Amino acid sequence: MANFYFKGFTVRQSGAAMKVNTDGVLLPAWVKLPAFRECPKGKLQETMVLDAGSGTGVISLIMACRLARMGTAFKVHGIEIDHASYEESLFNFESSPWSNNLVASHISLQQYSKDPLNHGIFDLVLSNPPFFSNSLKAPSLRRSIARHNDLLPPGELLVSSFNLLKDDGILALILPANEGDELVHMAAANGMFDLKRLCRLKTLENKEPKRYLIELQKKSPPMAGKEFVLPHIETLVMQHSGGLIYTKDYVNLVGEYYLKELAWRDGYPV
User: What is the pTM of this model?
Assistant: First the structure.
Protein backbone atom coordinates (compact mmCIF):
# COMPACT_ATOMS: atom_id res chain seq x y z
CA MET A 1 0.00 0.00 0.00
CA ALA A 2 1.54 3.30 -1.10
CA ASN A 3 -0.45 5.62 1.18
CA PHE A 4 -2.34 5.28 4.45
CA TYR A 5 -5.09 7.85 4.89
CA PHE A 6 -6.00 9.36 8.24
CA LYS A 7 -8.44 12.11 9.13
CA GLY A 8 -6.49 15.30 8.52
CA PHE A 9 -3.29 13.86 7.04
CA THR A 10 -1.88 11.17 4.76
CA VAL A 11 1.10 8.90 5.36
CA ARG A 12 3.17 7.85 2.36
CA GLN A 13 4.82 4.55 3.24
CA SER A 14 5.96 2.78 0.06
CA GLY A 15 9.65 3.37 0.89
CA ALA A 16 9.49 2.70 4.63
CA ALA A 17 11.00 -0.42 6.19
CA MET A 18 7.94 -0.77 8.43
CA LYS A 19 4.45 0.26 7.32
CA VAL A 20 1.75 1.94 9.39
CA ASN A 21 0.47 -0.47 12.02
CA THR A 22 -1.80 -0.48 15.05
CA ASP A 23 1.10 -0.04 17.51
CA GLY A 24 2.16 3.20 15.80
CA VAL A 25 -1.34 4.64 16.18
CA LEU A 26 -2.02 3.42 19.70
CA LEU A 27 1.07 4.87 21.37
CA PRO A 28 0.61 8.57 20.41
CA ALA A 29 -3.16 8.32 20.96
CA TRP A 30 -2.73 6.82 24.46
CA VAL A 31 0.16 8.81 25.93
CA LYS A 32 -0.73 11.77 28.11
CA LEU A 33 0.28 15.14 26.70
CA PRO A 34 3.07 16.88 28.62
CA ALA A 35 2.04 19.51 31.12
CA PHE A 36 2.55 22.96 29.64
CA ARG A 37 5.41 24.88 31.26
CA GLU A 38 5.54 28.64 31.74
CA CYS A 39 8.56 30.77 30.86
CA PRO A 40 9.80 33.28 33.45
CA LYS A 41 7.83 36.02 31.68
CA GLY A 42 4.60 34.08 32.03
CA LYS A 43 4.37 32.77 28.47
CA LEU A 44 4.09 29.06 27.69
CA GLN A 45 7.28 27.29 26.72
CA GLU A 46 7.41 25.34 23.48
CA THR A 47 6.49 21.71 24.17
CA MET A 48 9.28 19.47 22.88
CA VAL A 49 8.62 15.91 21.74
CA LEU A 50 11.03 13.34 20.28
CA ASP A 51 9.88 10.40 18.13
CA ALA A 52 12.76 7.91 18.35
CA GLY A 53 12.67 5.66 15.29
CA SER A 54 10.04 7.65 13.41
CA GLY A 55 9.62 5.31 10.43
CA THR A 56 6.81 6.76 8.32
CA GLY A 57 6.33 9.56 10.86
CA VAL A 58 2.85 8.46 11.94
CA ILE A 59 3.61 8.80 15.68
CA SER A 60 4.91 12.34 15.15
CA LEU A 61 1.91 13.29 13.04
CA ILE A 62 -0.65 12.09 15.58
CA MET A 63 1.23 13.91 18.35
CA ALA A 64 1.27 17.08 16.23
CA CYS A 65 -2.47 16.73 15.66
CA ARG A 66 -3.12 16.43 19.41
CA LEU A 67 -0.80 19.28 20.40
CA ALA A 68 -2.19 21.60 17.74
CA ARG A 69 -5.68 21.12 19.17
CA MET A 70 -4.40 22.31 22.54
CA GLY A 71 -3.28 25.58 21.00
CA THR A 72 0.23 25.55 22.47
CA ALA A 73 3.58 26.10 20.78
CA PHE A 74 5.28 22.78 20.08
CA LYS A 75 8.00 21.02 18.13
CA VAL A 76 8.04 17.31 17.29
CA HIS A 77 11.39 15.94 16.15
CA GLY A 78 11.42 12.55 14.39
CA ILE A 79 14.74 10.71 14.11
CA GLU A 80 15.24 7.61 11.96
CA ILE A 81 18.31 5.47 11.19
CA ASP A 82 16.94 3.95 7.94
CA HIS A 83 17.49 6.47 5.15
CA ALA A 84 14.50 5.53 2.99
CA SER A 85 12.18 5.60 6.00
CA TYR A 86 13.63 8.98 7.01
CA GLU A 87 12.82 10.30 3.52
CA GLU A 88 9.24 9.07 3.88
CA SER A 89 8.82 10.77 7.26
CA LEU A 90 10.37 13.98 5.88
CA PHE A 91 7.91 13.94 2.95
CA ASN A 92 4.98 13.25 5.27
CA PHE A 93 6.00 16.04 7.65
CA GLU A 94 6.34 18.58 4.85
CA SER A 95 2.97 17.52 3.38
CA SER A 96 1.10 17.80 6.68
CA PRO A 97 -0.79 20.77 8.16
CA TRP A 98 1.94 21.00 10.85
CA SER A 99 5.00 21.22 8.59
CA ASN A 100 6.37 24.18 10.60
CA ASN A 101 6.24 22.14 13.82
CA LEU A 102 7.80 18.89 12.57
CA VAL A 103 11.49 18.14 12.05
CA ALA A 104 12.98 14.97 10.54
CA SER A 105 16.59 13.84 10.96
CA HIS A 106 18.51 10.84 9.61
CA ILE A 107 20.34 9.76 12.77
CA SER A 108 20.30 7.03 15.42
CA LEU A 109 18.99 7.70 18.92
CA GLN A 110 22.40 6.94 20.42
CA GLN A 111 24.17 9.41 18.14
CA TYR A 112 21.52 12.07 18.67
CA SER A 113 21.84 11.75 22.44
CA LYS A 114 25.62 12.25 22.33
CA ASP A 115 25.19 15.92 21.40
CA PRO A 116 25.19 17.92 24.67
CA LEU A 117 22.95 20.51 23.00
CA ASN A 118 20.16 17.92 22.96
CA HIS A 119 20.47 17.01 26.63
CA GLY A 120 17.51 17.82 28.86
CA ILE A 121 15.40 19.57 26.21
CA PHE A 122 12.50 17.13 25.64
CA ASP A 123 9.30 16.88 27.63
CA LEU A 124 8.40 13.56 26.02
CA VAL A 125 10.26 10.82 24.14
CA LEU A 126 8.11 8.28 22.29
CA SER A 127 9.28 5.06 20.70
CA ASN A 128 7.81 1.99 19.06
CA PRO A 129 11.22 0.33 19.32
CA PRO A 130 12.62 -2.82 17.72
CA PHE A 131 12.05 -5.57 20.25
CA PHE A 132 13.12 -8.97 18.90
CA SER A 133 16.40 -10.39 20.23
CA ASN A 134 18.13 -13.69 19.42
CA SER A 135 15.33 -14.62 17.02
CA LEU A 136 14.99 -15.46 13.34
CA LYS A 137 15.67 -12.43 11.20
CA ALA A 138 13.27 -11.23 8.49
CA PRO A 139 14.39 -11.85 4.89
CA SER A 140 14.71 -8.09 4.32
CA LEU A 141 17.75 -6.54 6.02
CA ARG A 142 15.93 -3.21 6.48
CA ARG A 143 12.91 -4.94 8.03
CA SER A 144 15.19 -6.92 10.34
CA ILE A 145 16.85 -3.71 11.54
CA ALA A 146 13.42 -2.18 12.18
CA ARG A 147 12.19 -5.23 14.14
CA HIS A 148 15.28 -6.50 15.99
CA ASN A 149 17.02 -4.63 18.79
CA ASP A 150 20.60 -5.31 17.65
CA LEU A 151 21.14 -1.60 16.87
CA LEU A 152 19.02 -0.27 19.77
CA PRO A 153 19.28 -2.54 22.83
CA PRO A 154 16.87 -1.70 25.68
CA GLY A 155 19.65 -0.42 27.92
CA GLU A 156 20.83 2.07 25.30
CA LEU A 157 17.24 3.18 24.69
CA LEU A 158 16.87 3.98 28.40
CA VAL A 159 20.21 5.76 28.79
CA SER A 160 19.79 7.84 25.62
CA SER A 161 16.25 8.85 26.56
CA PHE A 162 17.32 9.76 30.09
CA ASN A 163 19.94 12.14 28.69
CA LEU A 164 17.49 13.80 26.32
CA LEU A 165 14.59 14.30 28.74
CA LYS A 166 13.98 17.21 31.08
CA ASP A 167 13.67 16.45 34.78
CA ASP A 168 10.41 14.53 35.29
CA GLY A 169 10.14 14.05 31.49
CA ILE A 170 8.34 10.99 30.13
CA LEU A 171 9.58 8.07 28.03
CA ALA A 172 6.57 6.39 26.41
CA LEU A 173 6.87 3.00 24.70
CA ILE A 174 4.81 0.20 23.19
CA LEU A 175 6.25 -3.31 23.47
CA PRO A 176 5.12 -6.93 23.51
CA ALA A 177 4.12 -7.95 27.03
CA ASN A 178 7.24 -10.02 27.83
CA GLU A 179 9.64 -7.37 26.55
CA GLY A 180 7.59 -4.70 28.32
CA ASP A 181 7.97 -6.50 31.66
CA GLU A 182 11.71 -6.82 31.13
CA LEU A 183 12.15 -3.15 30.24
CA VAL A 184 10.10 -1.93 33.22
CA HIS A 185 12.25 -4.05 35.55
CA MET A 186 15.44 -2.82 33.86
CA ALA A 187 14.32 0.81 34.22
CA ALA A 188 13.61 0.29 37.93
CA ALA A 189 16.90 -1.51 38.51
CA ASN A 190 19.08 1.15 36.89
CA GLY A 191 17.51 3.91 39.00
CA MET A 192 16.88 6.30 36.10
CA PHE A 193 13.08 5.98 35.69
CA ASP A 194 9.94 5.31 37.71
CA LEU A 195 6.96 3.54 36.20
CA LYS A 196 4.20 6.14 35.97
CA ARG A 197 1.54 4.46 33.86
CA LEU A 198 1.05 1.06 32.23
CA CYS A 199 -1.70 -0.25 29.99
CA ARG A 200 -2.07 -3.95 29.27
CA LEU A 201 -3.46 -4.25 25.76
CA LYS A 202 -5.58 -7.31 24.93
CA THR A 203 -7.03 -8.23 21.56
CA LEU A 204 -9.93 -10.02 23.33
CA GLU A 205 -11.10 -10.02 26.95
CA ASN A 206 -10.22 -13.69 27.50
CA LYS A 207 -6.73 -13.40 25.99
CA GLU A 208 -3.43 -12.64 27.67
CA PRO A 209 -2.06 -9.10 27.13
CA LYS A 210 -0.50 -8.72 23.68
CA ARG A 211 1.21 -5.36 24.19
CA TYR A 212 2.18 -3.04 27.00
CA LEU A 213 1.83 0.71 26.66
CA ILE A 214 4.30 2.22 29.11
CA GLU A 215 5.05 5.65 30.56
CA LEU A 216 8.34 5.91 32.44
CA GLN A 217 9.13 9.14 34.28
CA LYS A 218 12.71 10.34 34.51
CA LYS A 219 13.88 10.55 38.08
CA SER A 220 14.75 14.09 39.05
CA PRO A 221 16.94 15.10 42.02
CA PRO A 222 15.21 14.33 45.36
CA MET A 223 13.04 17.13 46.70
CA ALA A 224 11.87 17.61 50.28
CA GLY A 225 8.20 16.78 50.67
CA LYS A 226 7.91 15.04 47.31
CA GLU A 227 5.75 11.95 47.71
CA PHE A 228 6.06 8.69 45.80
CA VAL A 229 3.03 8.11 43.56
CA LEU A 230 1.99 4.56 42.72
CA PRO A 231 1.84 3.82 38.98
CA HIS A 232 -1.52 3.79 37.28
CA ILE A 233 -2.25 0.32 35.84
CA GLU A 234 -5.03 -0.12 33.28
CA THR A 235 -6.28 -2.66 30.73
CA LEU A 236 -7.55 -1.95 27.22
CA VAL A 237 -9.47 -4.60 25.26
CA MET A 238 -9.48 -3.99 21.51
CA GLN A 239 -12.19 -6.28 20.14
CA HIS A 240 -15.25 -8.28 21.04
CA SER A 241 -15.33 -11.93 20.04
CA GLY A 242 -15.89 -12.19 16.32
CA GLY A 243 -13.00 -10.12 15.03
CA LEU A 244 -13.94 -6.79 13.48
CA ILE A 245 -16.27 -5.41 16.16
CA TYR A 246 -14.22 -3.14 18.42
CA THR A 247 -14.82 -2.10 22.01
CA LYS A 248 -16.03 1.40 22.80
CA ASP A 249 -12.85 2.16 24.78
CA TYR A 250 -10.64 1.27 21.83
CA VAL A 251 -12.70 3.30 19.36
CA ASN A 252 -12.75 6.28 21.73
CA LEU A 253 -8.95 6.14 21.82
CA VAL A 254 -8.06 5.78 18.12
CA GLY A 255 -11.29 6.24 16.16
CA GLU A 256 -10.81 9.96 15.58
CA TYR A 257 -7.63 9.34 13.58
CA TYR A 258 -8.62 6.54 11.21
CA LEU A 259 -10.39 7.63 8.02
CA LYS A 260 -12.39 4.40 7.99
CA GLU A 261 -15.05 4.31 10.67
CA LEU A 262 -14.46 1.51 13.20
CA ALA A 263 -17.47 -0.65 14.01
CA TRP A 264 -18.00 -0.97 17.74
CA ARG A 265 -20.47 -2.28 20.30
CA ASP A 266 -20.77 -1.15 23.91
CA GLY A 267 -20.80 -4.20 26.13
CA TYR A 268 -20.05 -7.86 25.46
CA PRO A 269 -22.24 -10.35 23.64
CA VAL A 270 -24.41 -12.62 25.76
Answer: 0.88
